[in-house]
Amino acid sequence: MIMKRMTVMYLFAFALLLAACSASNQPQANGQIEATVKRVVDGDTFELESGEKVRMIGMDTPETVKPNHPVEPYGKEASNYTKELLTGQKVTLKFDAEPYDKYKRLLAYVYMSDGTFVNEKLVRDGYARIMTIPPNVAHADLFLEAEREAREQNRGLWGLEDEKKAESKKKEDKSKKKEKDSASNTQTPPDGKLIKGNINSKGDKIYHVPGSSSYEQTNAEMWFATEEEAQAAGFRAPKR
């Protein structure tokens, strides 16, 4: 009888232990669980082997898979970066005040086995911007400092601003050159001299009379009153 009671007590204690272990690996506010990453959806979202989706807290990478939304600049780079970091890796998911979002995705701070804080790394390396949504704000200051550093160093997506400025300046310079060339082709001829003399890239001296096919776009280096005057200066008529 005593042995039977002891057996029942052991079984009961074992059941309680199993329940406690099971509960310890369930998402809870300010708790944590161990998990393995099955695949990365995009820069800030991935799927576990259990099938649950995880959205990293406190940061936001450019969109790549949002329905009816174009792929945003640096989105593919961020997605590929997260894939290299996390695919197939065992990670620790730490939760803030809310373990889930409205889409039933886990909201987590993600740590790799070597201690790397993935959320922070994505921000500091310039693959993500900070996105602080209360009440999940445990590392808001850390993320702000990481983004400030990424901006100052022009890392990742922050370097795109310099590229845009350079491209804008290039277009501006091109526009100014076009305006300058256009202005040079509307030169005011000296009184009585309408024939344009021009020396091409091959060194050929060619004159163009008003009404000819190349007259308007030709930049006059010399002006002549007559074709004879142009020819006397060593210029010839166009071959066509």
From TrEMBL:
The lineage of its organism: Bacteria, Bacillati, Bacillota, Bacilli, Bacillales. This is TNase-like domain-containing protein. Residues 155-212 are annotated as: Disordered. It holds the Pfam family SNase. Coiled coil: none annotated. Residues 161-182 have a biased composition (Basic and acidic residues). Transmembrane segments: none annotated. The keyword Signal applies. It comes from Brevibacillus reuszeri. Residues 1-25 form the signal peptide. Residues 31-160 form the TNase-like domain. CDD domains: SNc. Keywords: Endonuclease, Hydrolase, Nuclease, Signal.
